Amino acid sequence: MPSHARPHRGTIFVEDAEILEQQRFAAGQRVIRLHAPKCAAAARPGSFVHLTCSPDIPMRRPLSIMRASPREGWIDILYKTGGRGLTALAERHPGETLSSLGPIGNGFMPQQARPRTLLIGGGVGIPPMVFLAEVLAADRTTGWRPLALFGSEVPFPFVARPSTLLVPGIPDGVIACMPLLDGWGVPSRLASLAGLAGCFDGFVTQLADAWLASLDSTALAQVGIFACGPTPMLAATAEVARRHGVPCQVSLEEYMACAVGGCAGCTVLVRTPEGPAMKRVCVDGPVFDAATVFTRESEPAAAGA
């Protein structure tokens, strides 16, 4: 087979990744840090790893990368226990090793013409947004102006606090942030239906809609949206983007078996210039143009997360 037919050859690595740390948060949420230097060096916001959670569970689990340090060789992954695999992963300890396959997939592609990047994450869809925020904050050459909005139905996997960064257009009283992003100089705001202090009382997509509605046409022309989360949230995000005339990229979540394009078990229907086509979320995505995936006919009725 010619090399051009295998675009991912040489970019996905199998490593014995040592567990460096497991942090525990409410509602079965965990952040695991793995020493996986090859993956860390090649990871991009939106890419993921396929992990073997336990020696007696052969099926790997796909998990988004939240942070990566090429210099120190580690990656961070946020996950939520549920099912046999991730429950087993939560029981692994520092010093043990996991088989890691990654990084996999095409990541987000911000456009310099739209430096006002709106990052929307829901639940376990938060990690790629944190990764993208860190990369944009570190890039001093383009003048990115990211704003991160996170939503969750359970307590967040971090200790929220009032932000030190002002965000014009955000409703009064919505001041809770992710401290890590505040430290990078990236403003963030939180949405929840759980009545959490300082959070927007509603869906994160409604908070995004309110902020976008506060912008004039000149500002909107500089905005690009990037999102990851449950499918209803992504569908609602696509509708918000369409209503405000803003481009939107979404990272899809699908069940995967091989995660390298061989089984075609994670295909989704995507509109292309040549007509409808089935694309593999693992290697053709997981990031897609929202307008090619979520048409008005295909969107679920749920409002968001």
Task: Describe what you observe in this structure.
21% of the residues lie in helices and 31% in strands. With 305 residues, it is an alpha/beta fold. The chain folds into two domains: 3-104, Elongation Factor Tu (Ef-tu), domain 3 (Beta Barrel); 116-293, 3-Layer(aba) Sandwich (Rossmann fold), CATH 3.40.50. The strands form four sheets. The protein has a seven-stranded antiparallel β-sheet. The N and C termini lie far apart (43 Å).
Spatial separation of the terminal alpha carbons = 43 Å
Read across the widest sheet, the strand sequence of neighbours is 4-3-7-1-2-6-5
| Major sheet description | 7 strands, antiparallel
Order of helices and strands: EEHEEEEHEEHEEEHEEHHEHEEEEH
Unreliable runs: 1-8, 299-304
Short description:
The protein has 305 residues and is of the alpha/beta class. The chain has helices at residues 37-42, 83-90, 126-138, 179-184, 204-213, 217-220, 231-244, 290-293; strands at 13-25, 29-35, 48-51, 61-64, 67-69, 74-80, 97-104, 116-122, 147-151, 161-162, 176-177, 188-192, 200-201, 223-228, 248-251, 267-272, 275-280, 287-289.
SSE layout and pairings?
Layout lengths: L12 E13 L3 E7 L1 H6 L5 E4 L9 E4 L2 E3 L4 E7 L2 H8 L6 E8 L11 E7 L3 H13 L8 E5 L9 E2 L13 E2 L1 H6 L3 E5 L7 E2 L2 H10 L3 H4 L2 E6 L2 H14 L3 E4 L15 E6 L2 E6 L6 E3 H4 L12
Parallel strand pairs: 8-9, 8-14, 9-12, 12-13, 14-15
Antiparallel strand pairs: 1-2, 1-7, 2-6, 3-4, 3-7, 5-6, 10-11, 15-18, 16-17
Helix pairs in contact: 5-7
